[in-house]
Predict the structure.
Amino acid sequence: MRPACRDALQPLSKETQEDPGLMKATTILCVKRAGQVAMAGDGQVTLGRTVLKHSARKVRRMRNGKVLGGFAGSAADGLTLFEKFEERLDEFSGNLVRSAVELARDWRTDRVLRKLNAMMIVADSQSMLLISGTGEILEPDHDVAAIGSGAPYALAAARALMDHTDLPAAEVAARALEIAGEICIYTNREIVLETL
């Protein structure tokens, strides 16, 4: 999982820390366990040192509720990617992997799309994928994936909960995101949770 998450897991750059006009947000976590897939996202949107919104919705259902998607990064860019991904899902009859490959190809090669500043996690009952604008499509080694500002915290918490509890996927996702919200200043505890 390292290559696609490299940017999400790096410490904030000096430019990011000092630019009060740079919008930062979010944490998205996806967990798969015992036939259930859960995706959770926090609601915080931050501009510099100010919280602009507490209840943004960055996780959604697609393809008649059979696919979950979440984005971290610019809201406009994330919503554009949702639209493009849904178009690909329709084009390829809901095939998650094929749709992800085509989205990543478009995202990397299209003059307009390649400027989009976001990452995505998409999942159905069979697969969980991280998609980035560099053309990376990765299926995590473990049944947990996270992106965004609080990704390292949520990922660590979810992995520990998976290893040491029998909690269902939805509870692991919700609790891990709560833990991330207690640590990451760009993540809150206004959690949107979707399950398959």
The chain has a mean pLDDT of 86.
